[in-house]
Design brief:
Layout lengths: L3 H18 L3 H14 L4 H13 L3 H14 L4 H13 L3 H14 L3 H14 L2 H14 L4 H13 L3 H11 L6 H13 L3 H14 L4 H13 L3 H14 L4 H10 L9 H9 L1
Helix pairs in contact: 1-2, 1-3, 2-3, 3-4, 4-5, 5-6, 5-7, 6-7, 7-8, 8-9, 9-10, 9-11, 10-11, 11-12, 12-13, 13-14, 13-15
Length: 273
C-alpha cells in the first residue's frame, strides 16, 4: 500500500504534468520544486523539471536536471530522448547521438529514428541526414516531415525533380508553410513559374506575415511576365518588411520584364501605396 507521503508526491507530479501540458510552465515548475523538497533527487521530478526548463529555453537548467534524472535512472528511454534534444539544442551533436544510441539499445520507438535524423540535419551532415530520413520514411511511409526534409536535401544536392516529388507528397494533405516555401523554391529553380507562384501563394495564405514568400512571389510573377501582379506582391513584401526594398529593387531592375527605377523614393512610394 502506498503511504500518504508517497501518494501526495505522486499527486503533486500529476498536477505538475497537467500544468505543463496546459502551458502553465510557471505552475509546473513551482510544483516540481515542491516535489524535490519532498523527494530530493527523484528521477521523475527531475525529468519533468528538465522538460519545463527546455520548454522555457533555459538549456543549462534543462541539462542539469536531465543529467540528475539519468543519474538516478540511466535506462529511462524518454529521459534519454529528452537529453538528446537538449544536447542538440546546445549544438552538442555527438552527445545527442550518444543519448539516442542508448535509447535505441533499449527501445525500437520510431521517435528515436526521427530524433537521429533531426540531429544529423541540424549538424549539417547531409549524407547521414538523408539516410536517416529515408529510414524514417521506410518505417512510416506517411511521414510528412521525412518527405519534406528529403525534398530539401534533394534540392541541396541538385536533384530538383526528386525534390519536387518529395515536397509535393509532403504538402498533399495541407502541409506546413515552410514546406510550401521549399516547393516554391524548387519549382522556381525549374523555371516552373506558375507552379512556383501557386506554392508561394499557399505560404501567404497560411502565414500572411511572410515577406520572403511575397518577394519570391513577385519574382516568379515578374519572370512569367505579370508585372502588375509582381508589383502587388512586392508591395505586400515591403509593407511586411521594409528591409526587403533592396532585393525588390534589384529584381525589378535586373529582370528582362522589369522596370528601370531611377528615383528610389518614387519606388518606395509605389510599393507603400
Amino acid at each position: 500500500m502506498i503511504g500518504a507521503s508517497q501518494g501526495d508526491s505522486d499527486d503533486l507530479i500529476r498536477r505538475a504534468v497537467a500544468a505543463f501540458n496546459s502551458g502553465d510552465h510557471a505552475r509546473a515548475m513551482g510544483l516540481c520544486e515542491l516535489g524535490l523538497k519532498q523527494r530530493p533527487g527523484d528521477a521523475a521530478v527531475c525529468h519533468l523539471m528538465a522538460a519545463v526548463s527546455f520548454a522555457r529555453s533555459d538549456l543549462p537548467a534543462a541539462r542539469a536536471r536531465i543529467e540528475a534524472s539519468l543519474a538516478a535512472r540511466p535506462d529511462n528511454v524518454p529521459a534519454l530522448i529528452l537529453a538528446s534534444r537538449i544536447a542538440r539544442a546546445e549544438g552538442r551533436f555527438e552527445a545527442a547521438l550518444r543519448f539516442l544510441d542508448g535509447a535505441a539499445r533499449r527501445s525500437s520507438q520510431a521517435e528515436i529514428l526521427v530524433e537521429r535524423a533531426r540531429t544529423f540535419d541540424q549538424a549539417g551532415d547531409a549524407s547521414a541526414a538523408g539516410a536517416s530520413w529515408m529510414q524514417v520514411l521506410q518505417r512510416d511511409p506517411k511521414s510528412e516531415e521525412a518527405m519534406a526534409r528529403l525534398g530539401r536535401l534533394a534540392r541541396g544536392r541538385g536533384a530538383p525533380v526528386e525534390a519536387e516529388g518529395f515536397l509535393e507528397r509532403a504538402v498533399a494533405r495541407g502541409g506546413h508553410p515552410a514546406w510550401w516555401f521549399d516547393l516554391g523554391l524548387v519549382r522556381q529553380d525549374m523555371r516552373k513559374f506558375d507552379a512556383a507562384a501557386e506554392a508561394y501563394r499557399r505560404v501567404l495564405e497560411m502565414s500572411p506575415d511572410a515577406p520572403e514568400a511575397a518577394v519570391n512571389l513577385g519574382v516568379v510573377l515578374q519572370e512569367a511576365g505579370d508585372l502588375e501582379g509582381a508589383m502587388a506582391a512586392y508591395s505586400t513584401a515591403y509593407r511586411l518588411s521594409p528591409s526587403t526594398f533592396g532585393v525588390i529593387a534589384m529584381a525589378l531592375t535586373s529582370a528582362p520584364s522589369g522596370r528601370l527605377w531611377l528615383d528610389e523614393e518614387a519606388l518606395r512610394r509605389s510599393l507603400a501605396g
